[in-house]
Design goal:
The chain is of the alpha/beta class and 309 residues long. It has one domain: Ribokinase (UDP-N-acetylmuramoyl-L-alanine:D-glutamate ligase, 3-Layer(aba) Sandwich), CATH 3.40.1190. 36% of the residues lie in helices and 24% in strands. It is built from ten helices and 14 strands. The strands form two sheets. The chain has a ten-stranded mixed β-sheet with strand order 5-4-1-8-9-10-11-12-13-14, sandwiched between helices. The chain starts with a strand and ends with a strand. The relative contact order is 0.15.
Length: 309
């Protein structure tokens, strides 16, 4: 089973504003809302890929209700703890003229230690050996900065494979729990290592350094430059595919979802590369943070190329 954890979910509101201008009146030409938060986004793509996931998280207020309703009919087991306060709303501004994507994210409702511990204990009761747990996204206000470390260690002790996809302190602290797989982008990996990693060679060296600390797989997304897949046995580079861009929101989450599905199915690295590159690319073609249909992913897979480095 694939479990996704979203401690700071959001209702994603995506608006399209041609020639978006700061300090001026801007008019929206299109708007859509989607259930969001990185773990929830992963679950949505897992469903599109034909697998089932259990989405663990915290939802509050009318916004939380809207997220739950938005997930109805998906192949997702929704397992959210209701809390006081309203789940946040995040605004994504897409400018098709200037080709920019601007994100304005609320901090989210605060959470206390008792709520986090209750949710963790619930997850641990469900876990079985070799289950996959995706810890993804930012932490809500009130959550200790070492939350992903504590959750990662507890899940690993149960025999689960922990996938970690975060940034800043949550990622740095989470690495202390030695996750099975991490999926930073090049900027997140630079921040984690405390130095600028501009070239592919520098990114590979950093990934191998993390392997030396116990992590089994490091996948680095580099936007249009493609992705790196680094394990103890192989380092694979897959160039990006050129497609029309709808929204980059959720593209990295789609990659994580495909990697989780590939791991669950025991697919070889080559197939994991094709599936994850195609899934990430297909989601770039969508508007908002909606999950791409599998038919689109399937059509892109033959176009994916890669080579060992």
């Amino acid at each position: 089973m694939i479990y996704t954890v979203t401690l700071n979910p959001a209702l994603d509101k995506t608006v399209e504003i041609p020639s978006f201008a700061v300090d001026d009146v801007n008019r929206i030409v299109s708007l859509r809302t989607d259930p969001g938060g990185k773990g929830i986004n992963v679950s949505k793509v897992v469903a599109r890929l034909g697998s089932t996931s259990r989405a663990i998280g915290i939802l509050g207020g009318t916004t939380g209700q809207a997220i739950a309703q938005g997930l109805e009919g998906e192949n997702i087991i929704c397992d959210f703890l209701p809390v006081e306060g309203n789940t946040r709303i995040n605004l994504k501004v897409i400018d098709p003229v200037l080709h920019t994507s601007t994100e304005i994210n609320e901090p989210g409702a605060p959470v206390d230690d008792e709520t986090l511990q209750s949710l963790l204990e619930h997850l641990l009761k469900l876990l079985r050996h070799d289950d996959i747990v995706v810890l993804a996204g930012s932490l809500p206000a009130g959550a200790p900065r070492d939350t992903y470390r504590a959750w990662g260690e507890a899940c690993r002790e149960k025999g689960a494979k922990v996938f970690l996809d975060s940034d800043g302190a949550p990622l740095a602290e989470g690495m202390a729990a030695v996750p099975y797989l991490i999926k930073p982008n090049n900027n997140e990996l630079s921040r984690l290592m405390g130095r600028e990693l501009a070239s592919i060679e520098e990114l590979i060296a950093a990934a191998r350094e993390l392997l030396g600390r116990g992590t089994a797989k490091v996948v680095v997304s580099m936007g249009g430059r493609g992705m790196l897949y680094v394990t103890a046995e192989r380092t694979v580079y897959a160039p990006g595919l050129k497609v029309p861009v709808g929204s980059t929101v959720g593209a990295g989450d789609a990659v994580v979802a495909a990697l989780a599905v590939a791991e669950e199915r025991g697919l070889p690295l080559e197939e994991a590369v094709r599936l994850s590159v195609a899934a990430g690319t297909a989601n770039v073609m969508c508007s908002g943070s909606q999950a791409a249909e599998y038919s689109v992913i399937e059509k892109l897979m033959p176009q994916v190329t890669f080579r060992d480095i």
